[in-house]
Amino acid sequence: xxxxxxxxxxxxxxxxxxxxxxxxxxxxxxxxxxxxxxxxxxxxxxxxxxxxxxxxxxxxxxxxxxxxxxxxxxxxxxxxxxxxxxxxxxxxxxxxxxxxxxxxxxxxxxxxxxxxxxxxxxxxxxxxxxxxxxxxxxxxxxxxxxxxxxxxx
Length: 153
Hints:
With 153 residues, the protein is mostly helical. It has two domains: 11-87; 96-152, no CATH class. It is 67% helix and 0% strand. It has helices at residues 11-31, 36-39, 46-53, 67-76, 82-87, 96-110, 112-122, 126-152. The protein starts with 10 loop residues before the first helix and ends with a helix.
């Protein structure tokens, strides 16, 4: 299956990564008490910077941070590197677990075979099994609510 330029193969993972990156940029901007105008002092488009910091992707900008904006954002927001801009500080592992689950979900959605393999492998992992059980309970509760709503109508 080919993936178009504006469509991603792993949408949950991509959306998660972009939202965490945008949140990081917004937090840094607020901490430095900067305006969009101060960030783009080098002649870059203030609207584009605003969209990046707010996590808004468009058809013209489907990948959140256009390559031409990486270096100016790193410099203006005082990141150590473009890697820190995208992924955060090297000692910040808070996004690893949610990233893992988003990626697993995306891979499962690709095919039934992938879903079966992942479930067989990960259900032996105690942590994953607990999360899976919690999600299954949540799903069943939502399904029960829908069914009872339909019966009640």
